[in-house]
Amino acid sequence: MIRLARGGKKNRPFYRVVISEKSKDLYGDSLEILGFVSPVAPKQVELKADRIKYWLSVGAKSSPRVHNLLVDEKIIDEPKIKKLFAPKVETSTAEATA
After folding, report:
1. CB 3.0–4.6 Å: which of 10, 25, 51, 62 could bond 66 by disulfide?
2. What is the pLDDT of residue 34?
3. Residues β-bridged to residue 6
4. How far apart are CA 59 and CA 17, in angstroms?
């Protein structure tokens, strides 16, 4: 899976775009670093487009946020994913036991 791994100091984050197994630890084990994103000013994005296209061609999936980042950077030509996460629906205990 292609996803973001956070690094940096408190209030000064940067994110590495990494390829790692979905079931493995997000921050420890990654197969390859594919680039980085720095959201704080000055905003910087640096991605290895050829390696990202290779991993997508062999079946790797990307997280929704990385997918939208790749669309913004014109690495892939697909529509953006509009809703990243479904809202949580709370159920009362009476409904849960019924």
Report:
1. 62
2. 93
3. 15
4. 17
Write out pLDDT tens, residues 31-85: 899 999 998 888 899 999 999 999 999 999 999 999 999 999 999 999 998 876 6
84 in helix, strand or coil? Answer: coil
- Average pLDDT for residues 5-32, to the nearest whole number? 84
Name the DSSP class of 58: T
What SS3 class is residue 62? strand
Contact 60, 70 (CB under 8 A): no
User: What beta strand segments (E) does the chain contain?
Assistant: 2-9, 12-19, 32-38, 44-47
DSSP 8-state symbol, 82? S
Complete domains list, the chain, with CATH: 2-72 (3.30.1320.10)
Q: Tell me the C-alpha distance between 57 and 3, whole Å.
A: 16
- Write the Ramachandran bin of 35: left for phi over 0, alpha for psi from -120 to 50, otherwise beta: left
Whose CA is closest to 17, among 58, 49, 59?
49
